[in-house]
Amino acid sequence: MNETVLIVEDEPKLAKLLGSYLGQAGYTPLTVDNGLDVLPLVREKMPSLILLDLMLPGKNGIDICKEIRAFSDVPIIMVTARIEEIDRLLGLELGADDYICKPFSPREVVARVKTVLRRTHGSKRTPVASMLVLDEECYRATLRGVDLDLTIVEFKLLSFLVANSGRIYSRNQLMDRIYPDQRVVSDRTIDSHIKNLRKKMSVLLPDNELIHSVYGVGYKYDSQS
User: Fold this and answer.
1) Helix/strand number for the chain, H first, E second
2) Dihedral angle at the C-alpha atoms of 165, 77, 37, 89, nearest 10 degrees?
3) Is the pLDDT score of 126 beyond 50?
4) Which residues pair with 8 in a beta bridge?
5) Domains (ranges, CATH) in the chain?
């Protein structure tokens, strides 16, 4: 596999444990425990993926993520000890590829790493992705050549998720994108639109769920999972 995963974690035992599991999975783990040392290491080693803890000595994970994104699109999985922080991370739109909350199973982290790397390494011309065609001018979406017969709101929602494939968005973020006039709608309206989209797409792709729920956070489009 020969892919390097940079573990940015100031808890030595946790960093060692993650390194051990990632090593057993075939990755080359690299650890750093101070936020000030991350950017020079990223520039020098060019890791395949970064596990970035939110709270670090020297510099916090939010600032580090922003600075990395200024020069690199390396996949980043943000790690936080508080689930309520995830909403704040999403609101900042840092460009992270995934989020995970402590405490977690090391096996779960390895699975997330595999998923993110598979997604970011995969070509956008994957068989599933190429089956979905969006016509922005006509608000028309076809899957396997069949018109999905979407409403305008459903099309806007699907188009936004596809354009930001792999990114997780909360219901409030999606409402802001779909209803820019700030009309009063329930956050469950997004759930209803997602349910309708899934139903229409599942008829043509029964074995592939393209719109994924992220428990307690929101939704993302991912044709690679």
Assistant:
1) 9, 11
2) 80
3) no
4) 32, 52
5) 4-121 (3.40.50.2300), 127-221 (1.10.10.10)
